[in-house]
Design goal:
Helix content is 69%, strand content 0%. The protein is mainly alpha-helical and 328 residues long. The radius of gyration is 23 Å and the shape is globular. It is found in: Membrane.
């Protein structure tokens, strides 16, 4: 399977996530189901799918898949879950100091931080043209999210508290580091991807379960224990939200194993733009000049990063000097 096909599919699924989530709301624009259970059910879904494909690989593969079962290696898969746990908590803290729109724009820093950590920890060298493309991608996504002020006052991006901006930068680095570390884990040996996924998602199940328990304590068990309401209010659309989230996660792990984090960043960034375009038709949202400019900039970035240099620049032909035969 080619990586660009998986990246395109990830773009479609990621863009569908926000739309499906919006469609799963009731008439009051709230949710009949507990949204905190969605990541937990998504991890269960990914774990079951990975178990099935590992069993299938064992049954059909002429050679048995490699499965490293040493605790020293397996415990490393706890790290991404711990990082995401800190990242989620910092996200809530950041939103106390910044408006959601400002936080969304600051979130584009993870594009830059992914490139930086990609170079430092994985020692993958990027050309100057690729660095320029990554910077353009961050500029393009940010441009598409900026709303026009018109005749009304608009909130300045620099009106938030300095603590919020510091937390947003930390959040961007944590998000990027989690992705980079996961790529390192998946590529450090030749273990079956499905076996590696089982280790990742098992950790994810337990950490998400812990998050649900913490939520119960914070609410004073007002709605009872989390397992008593886990399936309450779930409609077909809500289950599609879970399935879509889980499928996106499985595709991300494939890209981490066989492509890299930069491909994932491009896929998710393009998904954000695709969501904005589809929202024009599904939710009667008016397109802005900022969105159009953002899409153009991101397309240029995509072309610069993935197109070979010899196809971008017309290099002058080098004439081979004709060697003259010497007279005898």
């Amino acid at each position: 399977m080619q990586w660009y096909f998986v990246a395109a599919l990830l773009t479609i699924l990621t863009s569908s996530q926000g739309i499906l989530t919006k469609l799963s709301q009731n008439k009051d624009s709230t949710y009949d189901y507990d949204t905190a259970t969605v990541p937990f059910l998504g991890e269960i879904f990914k774990l079951l799918v990975s178990c099935f494909f590992l069993w299938r690989e064992k049954e059909t593969s002429p050679t048995p898949p490699k499965l490293t079962k040493e605790w020293r290696s397996m415990q490393l898969f706890l790290v991404p879950s711990v990082i995401y746990l800190f990242h989620n908590n910092i996200t809530f803290l950041t939103l106390k100091y910044l408006s959601p729109s400002t936080y969304q724009i600051m979130g584009n820093l993870k594009i830059i931080t992914t490139g930086i950590l990609f170079r430092i920890f994985l020692e993958r060298k990027l050309t100057k043209l690729q660095w320029m493309a990554i910077l353009l991608l961050a500029i393009g996504t940010t441009t598409s999210q900026v709303k026009g002020c018109g005749d009304s006052m608009c909130e300045s991006l620099l009106s938030g508290h300095i603590t919020g901006y510091i937390l947003a930068i930390v959040s961007a680095f944590l998000s990027a580091f989690a992705g980079i570390y996961t790529e390192y884990l998946l590529k450090k040996n030749n273990d079956s991807l499905y076996w590696q996924n089982i280790q990742l998602y098992t950790c994810g199940v337990f950490f998400n379960m812990g998050w649900l328990i913490v939520g119960d304590f914070q609410s004073g068990f007002e709605k009872g224990f989390w397992w008593q309401r886990i399936f309450n209010g779930y409609t077909l659309t809500a289950w599609l939200v879970v399935a879509n989230l889980a499928s996106s996660g499985l595709l991300v792990s494939w890209l981490m194993k066989y492509a890299d984090n930069i491909v994932k960043v491009y896929a998710t960034s393009m998904a954000m733009l695709l969501t904005a375009v589809l929202s024009q038709f599904l939710f009667d949202v008016k397109a802005t000049i900022q969105l159009v400019l953002g899409i153009i900039i991101c397309m240029i970035s995509l072309h610069l990063y993935f197109t070979p240099v010899h196809m971008l620049v017309d290099l002058p032909a080098i004439e081979t000097p004709v060697r003259r035969e010497e007279d005898p």
